[in-house]
Amino acid sequence: MESSAKRKVLLGVTGGIAAYKSCLLLRRLVEAGCDTRVVMTRHATHFVGPLSFSTLSGHPVAADPFESYQVDGAEHVDLSVWADQFVVAPATANILAKSATGIADDFLSTLICAYDRPILFAPAMNHRMWSNAAIRRACGQLQEDGHVLVEPGAGWLACGETGAGRMAEPEFIHEHLDWLWHRTSLLQGRRVLISAGPTVEAVDEVRVLSNRSSGRMGFALARAAQRMGAEVRLVAGPVELPTPLGVCRRDVRSAAQMAQAMLEEAATADVVIMCAAVADYAPEAISGKRKKDGSPWQLSLLPTVDILRELGALPGRETRIIAGFALEMERELEQAREKLQRKGLDFICLNNPRTEGADFGSTQNQITLLDRDGTVQEWPLMDKLLVAERILRHAALRLGNMA
Fold first, then answer.
1. What is the C-alpha to C-alpha distance for residues 87 and 66, in angstroms, rounded to an integer?
2. What is the Cα–Cα distance from 164 to 102, expressed in whole angstroms?
3. Pick from 177, 174, 154, 176: which is nearest to 165 by CA?
4. Phi first, then psi: what are they for 159, rounded to 5°?
5. Least reliable range by pLDDT among 164-168, 256-260, 399-403
6. N or C: which terminus of the chain has fewer CB atoms within 10 Å of its end residue's CB?
7. By percentage, how much of the chain surpasses pLDDT 90?
8. pLDDT average, residue stretch 4-26
């Protein structure tokens, strides 16, 4: 998770058994560098004591009845103005209904009424309460007003029943907060297509050939594009990574499957970035499983489809940005420049897995971006999400110049 330093977050905690999860959420926010203040309802203090939250946050907790509360040494500061972000977790049926109708009868609901930006609500309640028509209307009204709801999960509930109503996990709530914090309109109304991960090519019905791509760079690109307002399609090889928030994911295995998916999705895309490590060759697969008999096994490898070249041949190329990645280990710039020209790309991202800190599976990358206009940008080693944001800003700039 990228740094959230200097972000001021207000955490509202209401009375529910899921309040213990709010301690975990608070810890994640503090570890991410957020200055976090906690406001509790009177009922919330019966589930988790204010001391737990004040210890984790390093600040006194505001709880009903109204008490003097200080921020940065001031005698009185309106927390609704102070906070950059506001999250209510858990959000009970009571606070959802009050927030939707503008009722302000305690400290937390008053702050919610005074806050003039989107609030993130993480509901938690019994499954029958969650399906209650009045609560559904309240949730719809909150979303219509511009607020964000992190839908509760389904499973065993504290009441002993099962169903929808479990508060979302703290890491998922944090992900939503990061999305709200970083989203821009740079790619608003645009459709971005990204490939990620390795491909897997069958040798027989048991064995495969693949590569060491983790998919992290492609998934970071998808996440960053979604934050910038784009409609994002992600074509992913076999990786164990969660789908970024708001991204439509399509899973494939082989180079042939990836080619088919990319060509289908690219027809309506404004930006296409091939980040996947697609096999250049695939074996002539055999049926069944080849038995080990001690003799040498020579594989016949056939070239796979050149996806980038096929993408460049699609109708509408003149209004579409197409970019790729070049993993090179010798004569890096020369090889990347040759690939840029041969594939007819708008720009290419060169990286070398031998770079310290940017090896396979790393959360960082070191990129040199080569544009078809001849410019070269060498970037320092950075978190892959930051690299992704730079790449997409470059794509957005090029897209703007096309208009």
1. 20
2. 26
3. 154
4. -75, -5
5. 399-403
6. C
7. 65
8. 90
Across the chain, what does the average pLDDT equal? 89
> In which residue are the tokens 């928030």 written?
245
pLDDT, one tens digit per residue, over 301-329 is 999 999 999 998 899 888 999 999 999 88
Q: In the chain, what are the domain boundaries?
A: 8-182, 191-402
Structure-token match 């009050």, residue found: 98
Q: Within 145-243, where are the H helices? A: 170-182, 216-227
The answer to whether 186 touches 396, Cβ cutoff 8 Å, is yes
The pLDDT tens digits of the residues spanning 343-352 come to: 999 999 999 8
> Among candidates 323, 339, 344, which has minimal Cα distance to 399?
323
Question: 8-182 — its CATH code?
Answer: 3.40.50.1950
Residues 6+ apart with CB under 8 A from 41: 12, 13, 14, 15, 63, 64, 95, 106, 107, 108
What is the C-alpha separation between 115 and 383, in angstroms, rounded? 33
Report the candidate in 161, 215, 167, 197 with the shortest Cα–Cα distance to residue 19. Answer: 167
Q: What is the pLDDT of residues 19-61, one digit of tens each?
A: 999 999 999 999 999 999 999 999 999 999 999 999 999 999 9
Distance CA 1, CA 24 (A): 15
Q: How far is the CA of 139 from the CAs of 13, 101, 362, in angstroms?
A: 18, 11, 40
Catalytic residue from among 113, 139, 159, 349: 159
Known catalytic membership, residue 113: no
**C-alpha radius of gyration, the chain, whole number:** 25
Correct CATH for 191-402 of 2.60.40.420, 3.90.1170.10, 3.40.30.10, 3.40.50.10300: 3.40.50.10300
